[in-house]
Design a protein that fits this description.
By secondary structure, the chain is an all-alpha fold. The protein is about 65% helix and about 0% strand. It contains 18 helices and 2 strands. It has a two-stranded antiparallel sheet. Helix 2 packs antiparallel against helix 3. The two termini are about 15 Å apart.
Length: about 425
């Protein structure tokens, strides 16, 4: 039944409209097995602007002359094109989106209540947050088309595979972590950030392979090589959090499937990837060194940051310390001479130190509703993939602050659209 749903969705007939892209006659099958009502057509310009935005997400380049990264600029271009497909892009307002708007309101309120300092930095952060929330709204509606959903997955996989190939082939920089080790990275990115991109792409490859009915041998080989390449690049980067997030997020594939046979197949695929990643970590001197540091209590200053951030929350529990101001306050509480601001390295601590409970609770509820949407769609045409994306996001955010991480907003859009 699972394969039949995927095949039937791929064969949906498509009407053509003058000046518009191909639009599906219906959105994917829901849990009831019945087709939903027809959706408005999407402009070719809007659809390709969305694809370009997705393609640029992993290609962040920190050493730039522009104020905003190209991914953010492409997001702005995509939003500008949504006027050509207004009904299609803004037809549905999801509950997580409303909660994120509530969070943004208290984000601004916290900034005002804490003195409205660092105006330029706060302005840039506000624009990034607003853009991500609007992109979440529009992309969720676009991803209701299963072909747009699939194309977006393929773009994420292709772009991240290119990053991995550059790194594995030696076209990479060395990033000093301050722990006596050097880690490979690409385009000057932080290796932890790159690791999250690579882990997300590996999940996309596994999900696409399992969601494709009766894939050809060459298709399986391409997905298999992609996963191996992505995992090899992750090991070179030495991101413990990204590797743990990938290992945990593979579990939904192994545990969830519409039939016993599919469950066995998924479990074999997931276990092979997990075993290969674990074996690679044991063979990598970098990963062995990083794991040994963690066992000795060295968590890249998180062992100092977490208690300090918790103390800040207890002092100002309702509206927090304000955007940007919270970073400088945290930096002043940690004795390290080379930085005057510090990141919390945890999404919960980030939300509550910045906006307090009034802003943090709505944001966490929004993420929770995305997780529930992914869970409810676990037997849909995309199987456990949206749930695996959300698991990766949650696990990675326990050791990193990824509040404005574009890929994770895309994961949330995948989760909402999969219902």
């Amino acid at each position: 039944m699972y394969a039949e749903r995927m095949a039937s969705t791929a064969r949906l007939s498509v009407p053509r409209a003058m000046g518009t892209a191909e639009a599906p006659a219906a959105v994917p099958f829901g849990r009831s097995g019945r087709q939903s009502l027809a959706v408005p057509a999407v402009s070719v310009v809007t659809r390709w602007a969305f694809y370009l935005y997705v393609a640029w997400i992993p290609l962040e380049y920190p050493d730039r002359t522009l104020r905003f990264d190209l991914g953010t600029l492409m997001g702005a271009v995509f939003l500008a094109t949504t006027v050509l497909s207004f009904r299609a892009c803004y037809r549905r307002l999801s509950a997580p989106l409303v909660l994120y708007l509530v969070f943004l309101y208290f984000w601004v309120a916290s900034w005002v209540a804490n003195g409205a300092g660092y105006q330029v930095l706060v302005r840039d952060s506000f624009l990034r947050l607003l853009l991500l929330i609007l992109v979440l709204w529009t992309s969720t509606n676009l991803l209701k088309d299963p072909r747009v959903f699939r194309n977006a997955l393929l773009i994420v996989l292709g772009t991240c595979s290119m990053l991995a190939l550059l790194q594995v082939s030696g076209v990479a920089d060395m990033y000093g972590s301050g722990e006596g080790v050097s880690r490979a990275t690409v385009l000057g990115q932080n290796p932890n950030r790159t690791g999250r991109f690579l882990a997300g792409a590996a999940l996309a490859a596994v999900g696409l392979a399992l969601a494709t009915p009766r894939p050809r041998l060459t298709t399986r080989a391409v997905y298999g090589v992609s996963v191996a390449l992505l995992c090899a690049a992750m090991l070179q980067g030495g991101s413990r959090g990204a590797m743990l997030a990938l290992l945990v997020s593979l579990l939904p594939f192994a545990l969830i499937a519409p039939s016993f046979g599919a469950r066995v197949r998924n479990a074999v695929v997931a276990m092979l990837v997990m075993a290969g990643l674990a074996w690679g970590a044991l063979q990598s001197p970098l990963m062995q060194r990083r794991i040994a540091l963690a066992e000795s209590g060295n968590l890249a200053k998180r062992e100092v940051i977490f208690p300090a951030a918790t103390g800040m929350i207890l002092e100002r529990p309702w509206l927090g310390w304000g955007p940007v101001s919270a970073y400088y306050e945290l930096g002043s509480r940690i004795s390290r001479g080379d930085r005057d601001r510090r990141d919390t390295h945890n999404i919960v601590l980030e939300l509550f130190t910045t906006t307090g409970a009034l802003g943090g609770v709505p944001a966490l509820l929004a993420i929770g509703l995305c997780f529930i949407a992914a869970w409810r769609s676990r037997y849909g045409i995309w199987g456990a993939l949206p749930l695996a994306f959300m698991v990766q996001m949650l696990v990675a955010n326990m050791s990193g602050n990824n509040l404005t991480f574009k890929l994770y907003f895309l994961f949330q859009a995948f989760a909402i659209a999969s219902m």
